[in-house]
């Protein structure tokens, strides 16, 4: 077993898990002056963090379960995150059609009053009543509803941007690297890791277990101690269909089983419908939507919209499992979405482990701050002050107008279409100029794999964003996979493998 070759002999923090909580903690810690190493066994955001409903939201339905602290924190975070990454986080108005046989109007109005006032709201508009006319996309029987604000987000890119910022602040981020074992030895963690280059070892003062669906398994099998909490794996699935209407608003639909389902505009051409809530007991890496879930989502959509869906209208699907802290609730939809941080240390001189149970995309930054608060006693004066509330994520710096940035890209890169410039700006923000270094015309971008994906951008994603396989680029760094030609996927993978072999040899 070889030591990891680095100028850092012992890291302050070792983080296992490259989802939103892991990279959020790594980023916060690195920005406070701690030395950080993070490993992810697959790609960044390759599981739960890329299978969300793509929302930064307070969680209107959590009010029914009296999750007031969580909702207040999440509502405040909407505006913080909107300022940090305006290229990937956008305000969105949500319409809740009212169906009198479900939640009564007074209850919804009360919930929206709390939603408007529980958190600080400066940029986002408040709620109001709406009345539907004949041109409404909804069924004629639905004549009124309510409207409020939340935000949409490119969830996988939120993870990547936090990882990029962590690296820029000194963190070591290694994807495609599995933690084989971790044991305490002489007041430190000794961690054995494995990737395509072989096995190696690092040491760290503190271990942060942000393994998501594998958090309890990691404690049990890799560290070989008893986990302080269990987790419940709750499957959430979505379908993507041709767009149901031309409005730039989302719909939040009440179902007679007490759940709510979103219908969200997606990539201009589609509507994303989800999510479901069902217990999952299989391998988290193999979760997939069921035909029962597809039928469930189609039924809810058809009960609300004039545009009627059939099974063959489903263009794509995705599913993930949310690793929620087990609160022994009988109803999967009612299990708390709040997070629990558990500090595991049996003796004062023992190297501590901080395990992350639960959490949601919207509150990842606050979760990271809470983690730093728990770990502060172990670093005394070394840990600097909190910083993430004010500093933009990569690409969010110096953006005054998304539209203006799109125009500037077209002006400075001759021949680039508005569609392509828009995709770039919405992915890279002001870092689009890093991606387009030395590019002056579209011919400079190299080979076109299809759908406007050029070899120059692929090279950038390999070098700057840990892309290693076609799925990393087509489904997480972008959403081009929805329309990418099947014969070009193998060509892209071949190009990636040759590039990475060359990089490794260098």
TrEMBL record:
Name the keywords, alphabetized.
FAD, Flavoprotein, Oxidoreductase
Q: Which residues form a coiled coil?
A: none
Q: Name one GO biological process term.
A: glycerol-3-phosphate catabolic process
**Cofactor(s), names only, from the UniProt record:** FAD
Identification of the protein by name = Glycerol-3-phosphate dehydrogenase
Q: Which organism is it from?
A: Acinetobacter sedimenti
Catalytic activity reported: a quinone + sn-glycerol 3-phosphate = dihydroxyacetone phosphate + a quinol
Q: Report which superkingdom the organism of origin falls in.
A: Bacteria
A Pfam family matched by this chain, by name? DAO_C
Of which family is this protein a member?
Answer: Belongs to the FAD-dependent glycerol-3-phosphate dehydrogenase family.
Task: Provide a GO CC annotation, any one.
Answer: glycerol-3-phosphate dehydrogenase (FAD) complex
List each copy of the Alpha-glycerophosphate oxidase C-terminal domain by range.
Answer: 387-483
* Listed InterPro entries: DAO_C, DAO_C_sf, FAD-dep_OxRdtase, FAD/NAD-bd_sf, G3P_DH_FAD-dep
Recorded GO MF terms? glycerol-3-phosphate dehydrogenase (quinone) activity
The FAD dependent oxidoreductase domain sits at 12-328
Gene this chain is encoded by: glpD
The answer to whether the entry has keyword Oxidoreductase is yes
The Enzyme Commission number assigned here is 1.1.5.3
